[in-house]
Automatic annotation (TrEMBL):
Gene3D superfamilies: P-loop containing nucleotide triphosphate hydrolases (3.40.50.300). It comes from Escherichia coli. Its EC number is 3.6.1.-. Residues 1-197 form the Helicase ATP-binding domain. InterPro entries: AAA+_ATPase, ATP-dep_Helicase, DEAD/DEAH_box_helicase_dom, Helicase_ATP-bd, P-loop_NTPase. It is an enzyme of class 3 (hydrolase). GO terms for molecular function: ATP binding; ATP hydrolysis activity; DNA binding; helicase activity. Keywords: ATP-binding, Helicase, Hydrolase, Nucleotide-binding. This is ATP-dependent helicase. The gene is lhr_4. PROSITE patterns: HELICASE_ATP_BIND_1.
Amino acid sequence: MWAARSEHALVIAPTGSGKTLAAFLYALDRLFREGGEDTREAHKRKTSRILYISPIKALGTDVQRNLQIPLKGIADERRRRGETEVNLRVGIRTGDTPAQERSKLTRNPPDILITTPESLYLMLTSRARETLRGVETVIIDEVHAVAGSKRGAHLALSLERLDALLHTSAQRIGLSATVRSASDVAAFLGGDRPVTVVNPPAMRHPQIRIVVPVANMDDVSSVASGTGEDSHAGREGSIWPYIETGILDEVLRHRSTIVFTNSRGLAEKLTARLNELYAARLQRSPSIAV
């Protein structure tokens, strides 16, 4: 939590702590209030107001989905109070967005636009830049992933070009769970502008355990490393069947689970295998459905 003073901010908090929603809430509150009072200036009525930038396309898709619940909740509460109905729209524009959908976003921009650094650059160099003239809040997620890189330098340039379009510079909010040098990332985020670093003490007390998939490693005739192309889940003589079973047990035991692997390919294989195992269990015991 930090004071709502419209300052540039770098928010450092663990994954799953709610920092993304916290970054959105103040801006969302403003949009709902203005929507009810119809006080928006003319140059803001046909533009996006909140710009969310993620270096990871999949994360942007998750945020688009996760915003639906709070948006609906706020709208329902306003309706319950008899206040003017306001429906905020969320749009997503990445390299995967079809040309027809991009044209729709340009003709009728959403209140909240989710994009990537590269797509932002392309928007700023086309007529789509007109849809950004009313942006007031820029949220940059996983900011540590771009700070200090060529991709980050490119994004920094795009942010300055965006500010040059605006009547008033947009508030920048950077989000990260892992920042080694907060001062360096804050400097990247704000340039020559002051940035407030919000780094609350961790309230969680992690329980760390080292778990061996089998009681006796000698029970496995040959152990696959899990990092090479030959390490297929379910392979005969592999330790992976034990690992997969253990992971599935943990997933079913908890509401949410994050599994880290050594590569994207392994993550895809493991996901497919977990789906297969779950389907098999579900067939045997329908009561475990989640």
